[in-house]
Amino acid sequence: MKSESIETHRLCLNKCLYYFRLSGIWMSNSSMPLYRKCINFFLRALSFFVLVSYILTSLADLVVNHHDITIIVDDTCFIAGAGSAFFKICIIIFRCQTIDKLINDIHNPIDVLQQSNDKGATKIIKKCIFFETLDYYLWSNATFVLGFATIFLVTSQKGELPSRAIFPFDLTKPLFYAIALSIQIYTVIYGLVSLMMIEITLWGLLRWTTVQIEVLSYNYKNCNRFLSMQKPYSPETKLVVKKSPIYDSEDKEMEIKQFLLFDNDKHDAVEINCFQWRIRYCIRHHQRIVEIVNRLNDTLSSCLMAQFAVSTMIFCLNGFLAVTFPHDKKRLMRSIFFLLVGFIQIFYWCRFGNELKFQADYLTTSQWMSGWENNFNSDLRNYITVAMIRTMKPVEIKAGGLFVLSMETFLSILKNSYSVFVLLTTVEE
């Protein structure tokens, strides 16, 4: 009988990495045939050329019409969106090796945890897989709607482009108009799909790092529980987890009751059931997770700072367009779609950062509940001190090293966007 495999947490990640390689964003594999490398390089060069052309032609229109605040606002929205896509694609390209290592360091321990026999651990992972898949399809649909709005929700005048731009050739000629239209449509599709895949990949890094922090928190609390060591993932447990609901607030099986391992190293039952060994193991992996978060900050800090700036700009500018042209239904709908997608995007970043920070802050409580007072001796004192000192330093994701990803930051962005929106409407009046 064919064995049924457990749901994999790499499903969405594999789709994103496949797109990166297909579109030329991801570095070519050394084992890839020469013709594939050539196609990869051609697609990357073409995409960069089209993206830069889109930004420059929109910027030219903004400069020529600098006296019209409405045109400035309209052009700035598209330039900000294209610029954000271009910047994030560059981050993925130039830091591909760093991101690839982060992917392995974050997802490999989840591969091990996913084979645990603990029902709580498997249900936590199952819940995260479900919501990651849900987020993937939600973000895909939002991207499709925004792409449709950007390309088709324009005024119905013949020969007009989806967005304002000035090209160095005559757009009244059919061939040149077709070239300009192709540049804008390609930019919208390529930029939005790339942004979607990049966001799903980076959100996954935050999501599964948070899961490891949560498991580590349970490990601290289970240091004094010598009931059993980690066992292989059994078919019986798999059947129970598969039939159980994704989330139940009263389900006690969501709690992890075993001391779980993050690696496949062989350990005997004697050392695993030793309190001091478990504390040392927790401290070691606590440090590993802290280093992962530090590397995430180094990799994503500038990207998130740009994201916050673009999101603030999109909120206030599209709000201004929606208020200024309430009778232009197509422009109004496009502005609303921009607002909704921008809202979802920044909300997800702040939500994942907030959850990671919350789980990291709870580690201090978990350490106090480890049962150290029942196993205290002179050797253990240093371990407990090191563990608690480490939790005194916040573990959080920051944008530009200044703004912490949290719900407070999300509300602050909305507040600042509203302030700029009020300023723009005042200037227009």
UniProtKB/TrEMBL annotation:
The chain crosses the membrane at residues 41-63, 69-94, 136-155, 175-198, 304-326, 332-350. One of its GO terms (molecular function) is odorant binding. It is found in: Cell membrane. GO terms for biological process: signal transduction. GO terms for cellular component: plasma membrane. Keywords: Cell membrane, Membrane, Olfaction, Receptor, Sensory transduction, Transducer, Transmembrane, Transmembrane helix. It is a multi-pass membrane protein. The keyword Endoplasmic reticulum does not apply. The keyword Transmembrane helix applies. Its main location: membrane. Belongs to the insect chemoreceptor superfamily. Heteromeric odorant receptor channel (TC 1.A.69) family. PANTHER family: ODORANT RECEPTOR, ODORANT RECEPTOR 19A-RELATED. This is Odorant receptor.
